[in-house]
Amino acid sequence: NLMLDVVRVREDFPILERRVHGDVPLIYLDSAATSQTPTAVIDAMSAYYRTINSNIHRGLHSLADEATAAYEGSREKVRNFINARLTREIIFTRGTTEAINLVANSWGANWLNAGDEVLISVMEHHANIVPWQLLAERLDITLKVIPCDDDGVLDMNAYRDLLGEKVRLVCVNHVSNALGSINPVAEMARLAHEHDALILIDGAQAVPHQQVDVRAIDADFYVFSGHKMYGPTGVGVLYGKEALLEAMPPWQGGGEMIRTVSFENGTLFADLPYKFEAGTPAIAEVIGLGKAIDWLDCTHMGLITRWEQQLMTHATERMLQVDGLRIIGSSPNKAGAISFVVDGAHAQDIGLLIDQLGVAIRTGHHCAQPVLRRFGVDATCRASFAAYNTPEEIDLFVDALERVLTMVR
Ligand code: PMP
Asked: Ranges for the Aminotransferase class V domain (predicted)?
C-alpha cells in the first residue's frame, strides 16, 4: 500500500517554489490547462540543444544519428505508455488540436460522404468540435450531439439511440476538461464498433491521471498533448490503428514525409509514421515528452491516480462547505478538475482576486462553451490538480476563496 511521496515529487518541480505579486507563495491549481514540468524534462531538452541539436532522419553524421535515435526512442516510449501495438501507429503532432485536425482532414475528408453522421458529445473541447464543423460545411455531413445528465454523466441511452446506420465516427473525450467527468470510452467504442462506426478519443485530460491502454479501450484514434502530462508545449500524439493510418492519405505535404518526388511522376509517400510528419518536427519537445513518460513511470501512475483521487475528494468536501458554491459536474467518476460557480460572484472576479492571494485557477468557458451552456452558465472557475498538489494547498485555496467572497459579495 505505497503512498505517493509528494515532498519528493515537489522537489522535481522548481517552479512550485515561485512567489507571485511580490512575496506571495504560488499555489498552482491550473494543471488541466498546462501542467508543470519536472527538472528531468527541462534538462533533457536543454541537453539536446547543448549536445545533439541537428535535424533528424536526413542527416548522415553523428549528431543527426544521435538526435534521430533520441527522437525515435520517444516514439517507443509513447507506444509503451499507451500500450499501442506498433511504433508505426504513433504520429507526433503539435498537440491534441493538430491531431484531431489531421484525422478530420485526412480520414474525414476522404472517407466521409454527404449524408454521413459524426457523433460528438456535448462536453467536447472546441478542439473536438470545430474541426468537425468545418468538415461538415465542406462535405454536407451531419453532426449530432450526445447529451449528458445534470451530473455531467453522458447519456448512454441517448448515445445508443443516436447510433444509427449513418454514423461513421464517434468523437468523445476520455475525461472532460470542463467537468472532470470520466467517460466510459471502452463501452462507447464497443457500441460504435457494433454499428460499424469508428471512435476518436480525446485523451488530453486522461493521460496525466490514469493508465491508458488504447488496445483495451479498442480506440481507433486516441489523441493527447505533451503539456498536460508534465511534458513541453508544442508536441502531441495521434495514435491510430495501423490499417486506418495505412489507408489514409497524408494531410500536410513537405520534407520528411516522402520517398521520392518528381515533376514527371509525382510523389511517393514515406511509410508510417513519417507519412504524417511533414517538415522538421519539434525534436527537443518530442525528446522532452519521452522524459515526461520516464518521469511518470518512475513516479508510478497508480500512485498518482490514487493521490489525485484523495485530493479530489478532499477538495470537493471543502468546497461544498463554501456558502453558495455549486459544483458543475457531479459525476461519481471524475479526474483532475473541479468546476464551480458561486452565487453572487462572477467567475472572472474570483479568478482575478484569488490570483492576488497566490492561487492560480482557470476561469472562463474552458474552450467548452456548449457544455457550460448546457448547465446554464457562461463561465466557471476550475481548480485542477496534478501529482504535486497537496491537501494543505487545497485548504489554503478554499481559505483564499472565502476571503475573496467576502470582498465581492
Ligand atoms: N481537448 C481537451 C479535453 C483539452 O483539455 C484540451 C486543452 N485544454 C485540448 C483538447 C486542446 O489541447 P491543445 O491545446 O494542447 O491542442
From this structure: 27-397
